[in-house]
Every structure is written in C-alpha cells, then in structure tokens.
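Handout, page 2. Input:
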Amino acid sequence: MEYDDYQAERQRIIAAWGTEITDPEQLAAEVERLRDLATAVADDDLRAKAIRYLRSMDTLVAEARTPESETIGKASDVLLRATRPDGTPAERRARAEEAIREIARIADAAPTPAERLAALEMTEPLAEIVHVLAPD
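Output:
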C-alpha cells in the first residue's frame, strides 16, 4: 500500500466523523481498518509514520466513547486541525507546536482535574509530530 492512499483514507475518516460516521463503535471499526492499512504501507519509514498518526485516531475514538465536555471538545478540535497532513514539514511542525500551546491554555481553564488531564493527553501525538518533524 502507498502512504498517500493510507493518508487519504485517514482524512476520509476524520471528515466523516460526526456526519457519515456518528456511532463511536463504527468509528472504532474504521480506525481498526485504518490500522491494518497502516501496517501494509510498503516503505518502512512511511509505515512508521502512518502508525504514529494512529495515536491521534485512537484519541478520537476514546473521546467519541466518552461523554464530551466543553474542554475536551475544544481540545479535540484543536488536535484534529493540527494533525492535518497538508503543508510543508516546517508548517506542520509549527502548527503542532501552536496546538500544544492552545491545548495547554484550554486545559488550564478546565473545570475539573480529570478534564484538564484528558485535554493535556491530547498533546502527546502533537509532541510526536514536533519530534518527528524536527529539523536535523
């Protein structure tokens, strides 16, 4: 499988969530199917990248299965915008760095410690993007 095909399917699932896909279990099934596609990417480095992107998808599934608070909803929106695959590596890295800061601000305003922690956990896949896209 080509990485671009995997990425197109990932974007299709993200775009379909909340419209065509409304059931959290259906979303989970789509992400599991995406996981199978990720492991089939031919190039080793791109396969590893595809598998790393699954973290944000797993976060999306976990959020879908959990009743949403305003804090989690805002942080989730930031995460989804920040993990778009478009742009240069530098632009994607900058977008992830800004999203980490924005999620931290959202988390600081959370009404409960649990919501604060849940929002902060959404920075993990963003930190991975920053690390992977760091200039040499």
